[in-house]
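Review session, final week

We close the course with one last complete record, chosen because it touches almost every idea we covered. It is Acetylhydrolase, a protein from Spirosoma arboris with 602 residues. Go through it on your own first, then we will talk.
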Amino acid sequence: MKKIVLSLFVFLYLPSLTVFAQQAVEYVWWNPAQSDVPVIEGQAWSGKSIQNPYDRLPAQAEKSVRKEVWNLSHNAAGLLIRFRASTDQLVVRYTVSGKQALPHMPATGVSGVDLYAVNSDGNTLWCAGKYAFGDTIQYRFTGLEPNDPYHQKGREYRLYLPLYNSVTWLEIGVPKGVTLTSLPVRNDKPIVIYGTSIAQGACASRPGMAWTAILGRKLDRPVINLGFSGNGRLEKEVVDLLPEIDAKLYVLDCLPNLVASVGIKPDEIKTRISESVKALRQKKPSTPILLVEHAGYTEGSLNPTRKQLYTEVNELMQQAFAQLKSEGVQKLYMLPKSAINLTNDAMVDGTHPTDLGMQQYADAYERSIRPILNEPIGEISTMKPLTQYRDARNYDWETRHNDILARLKSKPPRIVFFGNSITHFWGGEPKSTLANGIDSWNASMEPLGVQNMGYGWDRIENVLWRTYHGELDGYSPAQIVLMIGTNNLQSNSDTEISDGLGFLVRAMQARQPNAAILMIGILPRRQMETRIAALNQRIAQVAGEVNATFIQPGTVFLKADGKIDEAFFSDGLHPNAEGYRQFAAKLLPYLKAPEPAPKARK
C-alpha cells in the first residue's frame, strides 16, 4: 500500500445550515490511473499491456477478437479501486465515453459508481452517495463515520466502476488534511468469469449489485469480469486469452449468447464448450473449471418458444459435460439451471436480472464454488471467514498477511504457530513493532523452524480467512500449532468458540492432511480464569473429535487459588519476558523435533 500525495486543489461548496452563508470544503484529488503500482482491481492485464487505463482486455487482443468484443472490453465492468482514509466525506468525479443510461437499465448502473466500506471487524458496509450526471459525473459521499472504535486510522473503501460505460478519466477527492492511502491489487488468485451481458452486469441498479460483485464480496476474492453483452460466445480468440490469467477458478457462463436464435448450430455449440474446456485444461491442468447452464427466462413457463431456447442449449451443455468427464477431464464442474433457480421477479425483461435476480445468481454461485474451493462456511460467526483491521496502531493486517505469504514461499517452515497478539508479539519473523519475548523465541522456537503466524487482535474467523487465503498452501509443515480464541470471549459463547475451533481445524486438515495438529488451550487472563478453565474443557473434547493433540501450558501462569500470577503478565493478558520463558518451557516437549539426519554409510 502507499500513502498518496494528493494534488490539484479545488473548492467545492456545500450548503450550510443557514440560507445566508456557504461552507467551503477544500478537496485534494487522487487519480488512480497514475499510480506507480497497480490499484485497479479486476483487471487481468494492466500497465503497458492495455490500451486505456480502465480496459478489460490487453491491447494485443484488438487484432484477434471481434470488433464488438473489443469495444465492450473498454467498459469498466467488474473493476474496483481500494483505498483507506479517515474522513467524513469524499467525492468521486469522472467522465465516460458512451450513453449514460439504457432503456432497461438506469444511469446509476450503466455509468454510475458504487462505494462500499470495510470496517475493522471485516464487515462490508454500503455507502450512499448523492450523484449528478453531466459531462463530468460526480458522486458525493458525506456524513461518513471517519473511524471505527478501535483506532483513528480510518477504514478501507472499495469503489466499483461503471458496468456499461468506458471511464476516460477519474479522480477521488478527500478534504485537505486527510491522508488517503492507496491499497494495491490483492494478490489472491482471482475468479475469472467469461460470460454475457448478465455477467457484465445488466440490469443491476448500481455496479455493486452485479452478481459478479456480490460474489466477490461473499468470497472476499478478486473477480475478473469478462462479460461481453450479447457477445460472450465461447470464441477461441477469447478463450485463448484466459490461461494468461493465473486463476483460482475459471467460470464459463456463455449459454445465453449461444441459443439457437443467434444462428449457431447445435454441433458448433457442443464443440465450443468442449474445445474451450480442453484449451484451458491443456495450459492450466489443475485449475478448476465451472460450466454454467442457461438460467432460463422468467416467462419461460408461458412462452414455449423461449423455453425451448434455453432447454435445448442446456441439453447440449449436459451432453458436452458428460463427454468431457468420460474422457477423464478432472476438476470440471457444472452449475445447473435448477441450482440457480431464479424466481418470477428475478428479471427486468425476462432475460436480464433485477437486483433480486443478481442476488439469486450470486447465492447460487457461492453454493457451487465454496465446495470446489473447499471453503465452507457455517451459521455462526466463528465459522465465517473475515479479515480484520482492529490493531492498526501496531501493525497493518493485510501487509502482515502478504509478508507471511512471501516468507512461506521463500523459507518454508517446519512448524507454523497460528495465533493472536500473544503469539504475534512473542518474536520471530516478520519482525513486529512490539516483541516481549525475543530471547525465549530465539532460544526455543527459532531452532525448531517455527514460523510465527500470530496476528494481533485475531479471532477464530480471522484465522479461518487466512487458512482459506493461502497461509497453508504450497509447503508441507510437520506440525500446525493453534492458540486462538481469547479475542472471541467478548463476542461469542463458549459453544460458538469451541465449535468454531473444530471447524477451523478441519479446514486446516483439509489443506495439510499430513501435519500434526497441536491445539493449545486459551491462556488464563485477568478476571476470566473460571470461564476459560471451563471453556478449555470443551476445547479438549473438540480436539478429541478432530484427532488433534490438546495441551494447557497456560496453567503455568496460575496461582494456587486459580487466579493468574500478575508477575508473568504485562497487562493481565499478554505475557512479559519471564512469562514467555515459562510458557516456552511448558510448550517445547510437545513441538516436533527435526528428523535426525541419516547416518553416513561406512
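Two points worth writing down before the exam:
The longest helix spans residues 304-326.
The CA atoms of residues 430 and 520 lie 22 Å apart.
Good luck, everyone.
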